[in-house]
Amino acid sequence: MLFNSPEFVVFLLIVYATYRVLPFQFQNYMLLAASYFFYGWWDWRFVFLMALSTAVDFWVGLTMDRGQLSLRERLVSAGFLVLSAILFLGMNPKGLVSSTQGSGGPSIIEPQSLSWAISGSLLFCTVAYGIYRVLIRFDEEKRRRTCLIISIATQITILAAFKYFNFFIDSLTTVIRDMGVETSTLHLNIILPVGLSFYTFQSMSYAIDIYRRELKPTRKFFDFALFVAFFPQLVAGPINRARHLLPQLSMPRILSLEDSTRGLYLIVLGLFKKIAIADGVAPVVDLIFGSTGAISWADVIVGTLLFAVQIYADFSGYSDVARGVAKLFGVDLMVNFNQPYFSKSPREFWQRWHISLSTWLGDYLYKPLGGSRGTLAFTCRNLMITMLLGGLWHGAAWNYVLWGFYHGSLLCVHRTWTFVRGDREGSPSNPLKEFLLIAVFFALTCYGWLLFRAHSFDQVASFTTILFTDFGNLDYGGSMPRPSAIIGVALLGVMEIAQYRRKDAHFYQRLPLPLLGGLIATMIYITSMGISNEPAQFIYFQF
Question: CB count, 10 Å around CB of 310?
Fold first, then answer.
């Protein structure tokens, strides 16, 4: 279910109307059911993975902190897991649809799948209980350390199995064959669950924060399950921390007119970015990067610039809609983008781009590696490891690793430069210098997007060669973006510049009401220009 689809509009209206009439004690149960329905819209089966991740980290968190779980806590988490296995692995929703329509088709219950689901989940719960009985006999530090390992191992195993298995196996097979050794290919037909990287990272941070004694675990299982599955941010983030989101879900929420107005504005802004701009430039980007013919310097420049526009409008648009929808339910999600293309250095860029991921990597990878608490070489090593893994997080392909290496190199060069000069990063007092720094780093960022978007190393090499050897070849072979994209980019540019100059993310709230209404109406009109019959998926759904 896409945010920009008619199905989501109907879904949101039903959920919101139900939410408004329910008392608080039932609101979270309803939101959890709605979130599972929202996620299961893509593939019913993969909801079980989220349920498994939830159950494991719930009991790991309590075991880590208190040393034990109450009987009720054990039964609720185990019962939830078994029921999830029955519903999402043993039942066939297509059969339910067929039965309601009175047409022939698959049955609702698949006996073999159901038996495997019941027996497998019961076996898992039995093994988990056995591990739990062993853990409670450990001393505190050993117990906490073991619980953390179980949490991380569970999440990494899920990621590795569904996202990276084929990538590493195929890469290893290629290396072996390049050495002259014939070998068969072990390639599994595995579907990547939507949003897997987001909710596993979110769940993992919960256990790590408890281990560090920065967070107390919740005893309310369904509040924790909602924290993992909250549908606005489930599929493509932002990656919210439990310390920020769980207290909001555990307490009654006040739905103010200001929050509702702010939420609706963010939804309009996000859909404007996605439908009018991102979808409007996508055909040109796809044409250029998918071309098998001759490509000019102008093609590479236009394709790369438009992809920079596309990925920003697409991903920040999703984050805006996610934050807006959450605000309708009285929940604040963290800001994920803060005008990244106005960055003057690689460090500033990662403080502005995909903030939830960059802070996650900083807190749970870069700092544990040692951060900047050592020599310059030690710091650069940590930066490079962090960015390489950050690149791999984006997808199971070597061009993402190359993109991570590129940004790691930029960070290392910048860190070395500031170390040698002894400069402290800040905004230049000279406007011309500020503009030049922004322009230079934007160009560097765009080349990184070329690495990100390219479908092979050969294309990276080809496009790079064209950039430096075919300079001035303006024989543009691509098409023009849709009118909605051209007008939308112009309007978004004016809005972004105004926000940057005022250093105020909420400047629009202080606009005169007629001007604000005109701005919203204009965005809605331009968005309507870009609507197509087939809503396009958000780019980050694949991650």
Answer: 26
Tell me, rounded to whole angstroms, the distance of Cα 131 from its chain centroid: 32
Query: Which of 341, 315, 416 has its CA nearest to residue 372?
Result: 416
Distance CA 425, CA 294 (A): 43
Percent of the chain exceeding pLDDT 70 equals 90
394 catalytic per annotation = yes
Can you tell me the mean pLDDT for 94-120? 65
Q: How far is CA 75 from the centre of its chain?
A: 32
Packing angle, helices 242-250 and 196-211, rounded to 10: 90
Among the listed residues 74, 76, 88, the one whose alpha carbon sits nearest the alpha carbon of residue 136: 74
297 pLDDT more than 80? yes
Residue 7 and residue 271: Cα distance in Å, rounded? 15
In whole angstroms, what separates CA 261 from the centre of its chain? 25
Residue from 243, 235, 202, 221 nearest 55 by CA: 221
Q: Residue 98's pLDDT is what?
A: 47
Q: Does pTM top 0.85 for this prediction?
A: yes
Position 542 scores a pLDDT of: 66
pLDDT tens per residue across span 174-202: 667 667 666 666 656 667 777 888 888 99
CA gap 520, 492 in Å, rounded? 12
Euclidean distance between CA atoms 354 and 101, whole angstroms: 44
State how far the Cα of 381 lies from the Cα of 370, in Å rounded to an integer.
10
Angle subtended at Cα 104 by Cα 102 and Cα 105, rounded to the nearest 5 degrees: 120
Q: Is 384 in a helix, a strand, or coil?
A: helix
- 101 falls in which pLDDT band (50, 70, 90)? very low
Q: Confidence band (pLDDT; 50, 70, 90) for 104?
A: low
Are 68 and 31 contacting, i.e. CB atoms less than 8 angstroms apart? no
Distance CA 327, CA 496 (A): 22
Contacts of 193 (CB under 8 A, 6+ apart): 43, 46, 49, 162
Q: 346-363 burial by CB neighbour count: b if 16+ within 10 A, else e? A: bbbbbebbbbbbbbbbeb
Which residue out of 354, 394, 407, 414 is catalytically annotated?
394
Q: What is the DSSP letter of 161?
A: I
- Say if CB 283 and CB 483 are below 8 A apart: no
Q: Left if phi > 0, otherwise alpha if psi is -120 to 50, otherwise beta: which for 191?
A: beta
Which residue in the block uniquely carries the two structure tokens 């190359």?
402
How far is the C-alpha of 69 from the C-alpha of 219, rounded, in Å?
Answer: 9
413 vs 64, 383, 446, CA distance in Å?
41, 11, 17
